[in-house]
Amino acid sequence: MKVTITEGKSKVIYELPALWNELTLGRYMRVMKVLKQKEVKNEYEKVINMINCLSKIPKKDIYSLDMKSINALGEHISTFLQSKPNEELIHFIKIQDIEYGFHPSLKDMTLGEFVDLETYMKDIDSNLHRIMSILYRPLIAKDEEGHKYAIEEYEPSEERADLFKKHMTVKEFNGASVFFCDLERQLLNSSLRSSIQKLKKKRKKRKEEKDKQAH
């Protein structure tokens, strides 16, 4: 949907996406923040915030629109929210001529990946681009069928995270989000296993000390 705003003698055309899949990761994060807002004066304020997020129309210009236009935009947003984003995991994406591959084996993640993912997943809404920069990394090898492939070793990269925030789309990353729950369970299980192993070691050590004292 296109919206024409008159600014002085010139006109500026803004466009609202029709589907979730069209949003960039950064825009998606802003939209989700608006949707989760609890402190709003009224529903129109929420609609205005959504229009601003989806179209980049300055709020001052949105307030100058007539109610007929606002209602039309509200209906468009309602239809947009009902669209279904892609839910299929996309293993390979290409951004600015670089091909990235989804982590081929989450169960074999390194300690660095584990620690950073565990940290970022405490606030997914603010760190989604960072999480994606861990899950998707530049390809270094791939067979012809794309069944077997390798990605770069993990190094934290704010540059890649920012790149994904600007250019990765919902269509590209939403399928990976279904792995979040599984990933969280893996992180939890790993933490539990680690704690259990530590307890076993402590008990074993105590038993050995008792045995020594007994003799």
Q: Would you write up a description of this structure?
A:
By secondary structure, the protein is of the alpha+beta class. The chain has 2 domains: 2-82, no CATH class; 92-197, no CATH class. It is 56% helix and 14% strand. It contains 9 helices and 6 strands, in the order ββααααββααββααα. It has helices spanning 25-35, 43-55, 59-63, 67-82, 111-120, 124-135, 158-167, 170-177, 179-214; strands at residues 2-7, 10-15, 92-95, 98-102, 136-142, 149-151. The strands form 2 sheets. A 4-stranded antiparallel β-sheet has the order 3-4-5-6. Strands 1-2 form a two-stranded antiparallel sheet. α1 (25-35) packs antiparallel against α2 and α1 (25-35) packs antiparallel against α6. The longest helix is centred in the C-terminal third of the chain and has 36 residues, at 179-214. It is elongated, with a radius of gyration of 24 Å.
